[in-house]
Amino acid sequence: MQHVRKHWKQKQERSHCVAHDAVDKPDREARGTASSGIGAVDCARHNMKRPCAVGDLQLGERYINMDYIFLRSVAGTDLVRLFVSYDIACQWHIHLWARMAQYENEILDLPGVAGTHQRFVTFLVPKFHLPAHIEACNLKFSFNLTRDVGQTDGEAPERGWANANPLAASTKEMGPGTRRDTLDDHFNDWNHKKIIALGYQLRKKMLNAVPEMVKTRLALADMEESLGTEAVATWTEMAERWEENSGNPNPFETQQKDEHLAKVRSDLAAEAAQREAEGGGDANDVRGDMHITELLAMGLQLEEQQRTLASDVAATGLHPTNDQHRAMIERTSKLRRKIFAWIEVQTKFLPGLAVEREQEDNRRARAAEAEPVPGVKVSDIALWLPSAIVGAGGCGARVVCKAEVLEHEYRLRVGQAHETLHEVRRLLLVRTHLYKLKDTHARGVRANTRSADKIAALNDRVKRAAAGYRAARAALVSLGAMLRRGEWEWELLPLKEEDVRGLPRARFGDPERQKGKRSRKSAAKRARIAREERELSWIWLSWIEWAKARARSMRWREEVDLLEEEMKRVRRFSVWREGWWMEQVGRKSGLDVPQAEGETAYATRQAGVQRELRRLFDIEWDGVPDLVAAGRLSVVNEDDDAGVVAGEAGADDANADEGSSGEEDELIALLPQREVKTTYVDEVMTYV
């Protein structure tokens, strides 16, 4: 509190990211109270409160409060490298070193050589909080993209509040000393329960981490095989340079943002306005109050509406209801009127199209003489955008489009292609989510039918988005050949039916339900299915996706390394702690016999507690070293595409689980399976 009073008037900058309510909007109901709450520093790996790590707040999480709590909790530590997780770390860390200098307090300093703090302190934002931040923060402060953190999520302090918040009803009426003693008791109890449960918790984490390490490593290998060694070598060098120095190009950030249709339209409008303001605009580009770029953009919208209407009409089936029939008639009439009004304006820009449309109508009339219902569907009306005119050879040279007009549509089509491809990816991810929900929660005919209907409707949207991409790319082929431009070709590949697929079902299905399914497929057939499921469509393959796959593989490998080291250190500490307690026996001299016996008994008992905990941990971790070794050394047999551990016969088992990857199941089988009682912690607590 002396620190708070001394620096109370210190101004702090508002957030440059988003409005963090914890800082910018302190709790109004706490005004006039001695404390509006508490802040704490936890171990991000094991969710334990650190020493001297809890302090009172007055007006929300002010920097002067959180600086003191954090710096006091790490004072005197021998740790060379620190990963600091804070939900507003992107803003809080900016002037931390300058504030440390202003405090002029030896305690409020980080260990190490002065001026080198940034070299061994990494600031990150917890995984759950990070999506609420801006894009720059998601790239710079992500646990998923940072080396050596494993699968740490940084949300440890938030979990502790769920246990401590119920204390507020009692502590808010206590005096300061009693309140702090009460909180200390609860936090000590929290830490103690975490310690005695380390055996089970670390084993559980390792049981999950090793198969994930193998799975992500195989996924990365499959992706790199599809990409080629040259591209992978270049991208790896780029990723390693960024990991060494964050000032280098970020492999997770696109160097050139995909310009969607709205952005292209905005740029074209701004350019047209600037040309007109400078007096350099072409008078032929304007008819009435409409610019040629507006006409083209409206044409693309009408083209999309035609596809949507055709898809919806086909989805109604042969026997629509009266409401469906009425709605389709109204939509068709409305779209037809829009198209005819647009054609009338288009003819003013391109008069030659009037002759072409008249000849097209005559050809259609002659072809429809034998038809019972002559006419053309509104979805089949040709709009004759410049790309179609170029593709038709200029309509017999009757219609001439300037290069500037072709350039305008070219840019619009590139934006449309990026936008529709992004929509295809987004819908496929949504479909993956729906499949997962269906596998996990849908039970019974009614629930499964409703889920299937939602997925079918989503599949129609995927097909419509894919059709929009194909139309945009076909237009780009025509325009690119005329303009001699093909910058888009390297990223906008042909989209075949087999390319429109998301992640394989085996990767996101419910593992518990999959375990109950048995397959009698032959080993060769199951190997072929597994190989096909590992292949990803080109729409997911890019250097950013590769960087993410590499990061996932690295994080799971690091998690296994961290868990293995933590297990070693837990056991080593237990041995040291047992010896430390035994060293306390007889250290005090001049004690009465009963006092000496009592203290000896207490020290001996505490040493026994450490010995018993170590014994229980050894039981929990029996087989874990074999599991880790198998996970690190596992290789895919050259003649077994199912991907099982070398030397195991999982892929040859006729009763192998359908949809499983094989290798992960074999690894789990190496670990002795024991039933862990729900009262495990309580039993240890009783002994202690």
Tags for this entry?
single chain; 688 residues; mainly alpha; 3 domains; two-stranded antiparallel sheet; two-stranded parallel ribbon; 28 helices; 6 strands; 60% helix; disordered C terminus; KDZ
Radius of gyration: 34 Å
| Structure classification | mainly alpha
Query: Unreliable stretches, pLDDT < 50, 5 or more residues?
Result: 505-520, 635-665, 667-672, 676-688
| Count of runs of 4 or more consecutive helical residues | 28
Q: Could you explain how this protein is built, in words?
A:
The structure is a single chain. The protein is mainly alpha-helical. The protein folds into 3 domains: 166 residues, no CATH class; 201 residues, no CATH class; 242 residues, no CATH class. 60% of the residues lie in helices and 4% in strands. It contains 28 helices and 6 strands. Strands 1-2 form a two-stranded antiparallel ribbon. A two-stranded parallel sheet has the order 3-4. Strands 5-6 form a two-stranded antiparallel sheet. Strand 1 and strand 2 form a beta hairpin. Helix 11 packs antiparallel against helix 24. It is elongated. The chain starts with a helix and ends with a helix.
